[in-house]
Amino acid sequence: MQRGHADFSEFEEKLMRAILGTSNFDEISKIVKQYDVSRVVERKFTGVGFFTYFSVENLSLHLSNDVNMTLGAIQTDMEGLKWGMGSVLFIRDGVIYMLEGYTYGEAFPEEIVNYRFFLAQKDGSLVELA
pTM surpassing 0.70? Predict the structure, then answer.
């Protein structure tokens, strides 16, 4: 799966589902619905990660404008990365805005293969997601 091709969206979809499926706040179901109807408006690859920007046109799914937060306690173990990858989903003005994936100083792999997602616990341990 190459990061510059449409196959990147498969990895991105699984990562988003992992973040949304492990997030715990009152209106997570509305954020999931936002993601389901969102479209990707831009992707930027930085060499050490990526930024994916979303648009949600259905205004009825927007939370109040004062909702600004980040979601994501997901760590990714990936072939080609010694230290793995972290990720954060940004909610801005009540709408999913951007997904950031980042390495810990390593070059992001050209091919995304053999990856696993882990949920970071408060004590620093990691639990693998099925």
Answer: yes
